[in-house]
Amino acid sequence: MRIDLMRACFLVTLRKGALSHRPPLNKASPKSAVKNPVRHPRGHLQAALIAPSRHGLSEKSISPGARTVVSTLQQSGYQAELVGGCVRDLLLGQRPKDFDVVTDALPDEVRRVFRRARLIGRRFRLAHVRVGREVIEVSTYRAKPDSEENDDSVLNEHGRILRDNVFGTREEDVLRRDLTVNALYYDPGSNTIFDYVGGFDDIHERRLRFIGDPQERLNEDPVRMLRAVRFKTKLNLAFAKGIEGLIAQNAYLLRHVPPARLFDEVLKMFHHGYALNLFNLLRHLGMFAELFPEAERTFTDTDLAPDTGLVCRVLKNTDQRVQQGKPVIAAFLFAGLLWRAVCLERERRMGHGVASYPALQQAAVAVIGRESQRISIPRRVSSIVYEIWELQGRLESRRPRTIHRLLENKRFRAAYDFLVLRSGAGEVPESLAEWWTQIQEHSVPQQQEMIKALNSGPARNKRRRPRKRSNEQSKQGT
Prior knowledge:
The protein has 478 residues and is of the alpha+beta class. It folds into two domains: 2-221, 2-Layer Sandwich (Beta Polymerase, domain 2), CATH 3.30.460; 291-455, Orthogonal Bundle (cca-adding enzyme, domain 2), CATH 1.10.3090.10. Helices cover 49% and strands 10% of the residues. The chain has 23 helices and twelve strands. Helix 9 crosses helix 12 (275-284) and helix 17 (356-371) runs antiparallel to helix 18 (379-397). The longest helix is centred in the last third of the chain and has 21 residues, at 330-350. The chain is elongated and about 90 Å long. The termini are far apart.
């Protein structure tokens, strides 16, 4: 174990001369980043080395592509380890979704080592390395940004990170990560975990703790609050003392996050299989009101009823589909969360004399437009949301001439699923949802019989349009 550590230190020393072309490193003191850190005599952080007998991991638990990337970088004279969620999930006995590699090689150097590497990102330059069918994300060690000392980092007046391309060492890299459980570095070759901030103990105690001063970390990037909530619900962890109250006090900081970035974070939160628990926690902390202000104002007690409420049913349905490995779409989530706001807006416009269908169209555009000021909903998603809402009225009316066209509509299935959830919430008769369920299961002749049965129902009072008089009839009338 000491030999591996000495080897890593030797490689770093050996490459100092080759690093002179790199951007100058941020030399800011890390005292504000970690409370009471263990340091070398020279002022560097001291890593606790977690042996295989303690962590229980093996090289076989790592994907072949990740092992190849790490070993290739190390053989090329660079430091390289696995880091972040993959190490955390392995220690928690879960299968990682992907494997991330961190190294002291610059992005351009990574591209020179791997011919099948592609550089991406503006705020955060990194490389995607393709190994067979796998794509491994490789990032460079970063230092804590300080715009006064380096042009490659930009912070705003609130201390929020706007651009972060300051490269550094592993000891500096650990200080810019958000949570201790995400700051473990694992070297598959030596089968050793490097722990600088007590993350290994936090994982075993199932505790979420920010690295350093939590208030400072939230000021730097308010999205860290969303990540903390997501990990709490997904991994069934507990907040460290004081974190829950601090997040509730700082929920308003989400207003300063770019709406496009919040869209991605919302999908990560609600599409991981624990959407209902996460929704309740977001509301408890006051964060949901910052993300969906109009939805929060318009929810009724009926909407939020644990077993029958439409919102709860939509989120439960999403969780079930994720857990069963079925696809989920962002449009269905937004359609469910914003439905009550749209209904109230439509009623308001109908009260001003607008017909039902145009009122729904106008309400949908207005509600989505206001919500996009907080969470930028792409047109590819909002257009499907509109269709799901618009098809509700057509499914309810069951006009015989349009039923076959409805069944062939590409958004029929999503609209039908939404109708079924509404029927379970008591918004429409369950017999209506059952009728649409049955007609999908029947053959074409049986479908025709069901449609004919609709025609034989009570006659509808239809107002005939007056026939347009021809010019000759008009002349005769005069």
